Amino acid sequence: MRLLILEDDPQLGEALSGGLRQQGHVVDWFTSGPPADAALRGTPYDALVLDLGLPGTDGLVWLRRWRQGGLALPVLVLTARDTLEQRIEGLDLGADDYLIKPIALDELAARLRAMLRRATGRATQAEWVHGDLRYDPASKQVRWKDKPVELTGRETALLEVLLKNPQRVLSKNQLLEQLYDWGGGEPESNALEVHIHHLRRKIAPGLVRTIRGLGYALGAAEDQA
Ligand code: CA
Fold first, then answer.
1. Which of 6, 19, 92, 157 could form an S-S bond across to 105 if both were Cys, CB 3.0 to 4.6 Å?
2. Which residue numbers delimit the OmpR/PhoB-type domain (predicted)?
3. Of 3.40.50.2300, 3.40.50.150, 3.40.50.740, 3.10.129.10, which CATH number belongs to 2-119?
4. Candidate CATH numbers 1.10.10.10, 3.50.50.60, 1.10.287.600, 1.10.3720.10; the one for domain 153-223
């Protein structure tokens, strides 16, 4: 998942972004609203984690602005305000879920997975199946013809993006945006090709189709070797 975290508390922001990165997500963490606002306009995030108590403009004000501006992204609100009225206000303004501080990383990760399942219409399906391929987004485990496949974090993230968009051709830039966050510097120019090569080798040659001049698409999940 590519996630945006807006949290001004340095320790909590560091812990959440670090922990979610370790679980294989791509995370951009901001400590104030304006840069997060700019990032949201140009980046295809899967979900937003939003703290309410922010310096300057309050998180609920940002949420209202973004929803009025047409932002359809799932939003999980972090709040120290545990009164019922404030939770209801957040949900009414367009939050999809909320957690009350202190935050447990594992619970946050599980709620994000549940939000994504609902957003992609896989609410009843914990495991994603594509032909002979099975992928469990909770454990990040991949099985091919009932045998486990060892993938790196980026290979897993790439497979997840392809499985999430089974009918679409994805450009190189669209895929790279899902694999690399802003903090890590520019990836090597052939990084994507290398990850795709590894996916084809470890799973099946036909799993990723090259669409000349356009990008890549999920191919047939059956052995065509
Ligand atoms: Ca705060």
1. 19
2. 125-220
3. 3.40.50.2300
4. 1.10.10.10
Tell me how far the alpha carbon of residue 145 lies from the centroid of ligand 1, in angstroms. 47
Return per-residue pLDDT of the chain as tens, 225 residues: 899 999 999 999 999 999 999 988 999 999 999 999 999 998 889 999 999 989 999 999 999 999 988 898 999 999 886 677 877 888 888 899 999 999 999 999 999 989 888 877 665 567 888 889 999 988 889 999 989 999 998 999 999 999 988 889 999 999 998 888 876 667 788 999 999 999 999 999 999 999 999 999 999 766 544
| Tokens encoding 183 | 């903090």
Centre of ligand 1 to C-alpha 79, Å, is: 8
Q: Say which residue the tokens 């996630």 belong to.
A: 3
**Where do the domains of the chain lie?**
2-119, 153-223
- Please tell me the distance between residue 52's alpha carbon and the centre of ligand 1 in angstroms: 6
* Contacts of residue 146, Cβ cutoff 8 Å, sequence gap at least 6: none
**102 CA → ligand 1 middle, Å:** 12
Which residue type does 99 have? L
Please tell me the distance between residue 184's alpha carbon and the centre of ligand 1 in angstroms: 25
User: From ligand 1's centre to the CA of 9, what distance in Å?
Assistant: 5
Q: Model's pTM, two decimal places?
A: 0.71
